[in-house]
C-alpha cells in the first residue's frame, strides 16, 4: 500500500515553527506579505482569503490591493510600485481580469526580484536555484520539495518525470532538479510518453484529469499529483486516475490533502526567505532545523 505524503500535517508542522519564530520579532519589524488582485474572479478571491488568513494566523502583516476589473496598465504598475516599496515580498494573483494589458510578463518583471515570492518574473524563471541564493522557486514547487524532504525521499538519486511544463510548476521544478544533476524527463501535450516507465518519481501538473491513464509506469513509482478537480459527485480528484495504475505505488500525494496545503506554506517560506535576504537574518534556515 502506498505511503501518503500528508501535506496537511506538514503544513501544520511548519506553521507552528514559523509562528514560534516570528514571536521573537518586534511588531514593527515583522515581514509584510503583499497581494495585488486585478478583477474579482471568485476562485482568486478564495485563494487570496486563504493566503491572508494563514499570514494573519502566523503574525505576518499584510498589504492587499484589489483593483477593479479592466484596470489600466498604468494603475497596475502604480500598485506594483507601492508593493515594491511597502512589502517584504508580494504576488500578483493570476489570472488578472483586464483587457487593458497586452503582456502580463512585462508586469511581473516590474516586481523587485527579491520580492518576487511567486517566482514568476524572468529573473526567477531563468535562475539557477541552487547557486543563486536570491532566487525563488514558485510556491507549489517549493511545497513539493518540502514534502519529499520531510519523508526522506532521496530524489537526488532517482530519475524524475515532470508532466506539464507550466511556468508555475512544471518548468521551474524541472530546472531545479536538473540543476542538482538529476535526470529529468519533461512531458507536455506534444511529447511521446513511451519512456514514462523509466521514471522513479512522476510529478503530474497538467490541469487535465486522466492525463496519466493506462500508461505503463515503473514498479513502486512515486507519484506527486498537483492537479485538483471537482467531480460531478462532488468528490475531489487529481490529474492522475489512481485506479487505472496497474503497478505498485510506493509514495503518493493524496488529493485533496497532498500538494494543495503546501502551496500556501511554500509562499510563506518564500516570504521569509526574502525577509532574510533583506534583513540579514536566518529565519528561513531555523524553520528547517530539528
UniProtKB/TrEMBL annotation:
Q: Name one GO biological process term.
A: L-histidine biosynthetic process
- What Pfam families would the database entry show? THF_DHG_CYH (PF00763), THF_DHG_CYH_C (PF02882)
Task: Quote the record's binding site residues for NADP(+).
Answer: 164-166, 189, 228
Cellular component (GO) terms are:
cytosol
EC number(s) stated in the UniProt entry for this protein: 1.5.1.5, 3.5.4.9
Q: Which reaction is the catalytic activity of this chain? A: (6R)-5,10-methylene-5,6,7,8-tetrahydrofolate + NADP(+) = (6R)-5,10-methenyltetrahydrofolate + NADPH; (6R)-5,10-methenyltetrahydrofolate + H2O = (6R)-10-formyltetrahydrofolate + H(+)
What residue ranges are annotated as transmembrane?
A: none
Tetrahydrofolate dehydrogenase/cyclohydrolase NAD(P)-binding domain location, by residue?
Answer: 138-276
Instruction: List UniProt keywords, sorted A-Z.
Output: Amino-acid biosynthesis, Histidine biosynthesis, Hydrolase, Methionine biosynthesis, Multifunctional enzyme, NADP, One-carbon metabolism, Oxidoreductase, Purine biosynthesis
MF terms (GO), sorted A to Z: methenyltetrahydrofolate cyclohydrolase activity; methylenetetrahydrofolate dehydrogenase (NADP+) activity
Pathway(s) served: One-carbon metabolism; tetrahydrofolate interconversion
Question: Domain named Tetrahydrofolate dehydrogenase/cyclohydrolase catalytic: which ranges?
Answer: 5-118
Could you tell me what this protein does? Catalyzes the oxidation of 5,10-methylenetetrahydrofolate to 5,10-methenyltetrahydrofolate and then the hydrolysis of 5,10-methenyltetrahydrofolate to 10-formyltetrahydrofolate.
Q: Which family does it belong to?
A: Belongs to the tetrahydrofolate dehydrogenase/cyclohydrolase family.
HAMAP family in the record: THF_DHG_CYH (MF_01576)
Q: How does it assemble?
A: Homodimer.
Question: Would you tell me the protein name for this molecule?
Answer: Bifunctional protein FolD
Q: Which gene encodes it?
A: folD
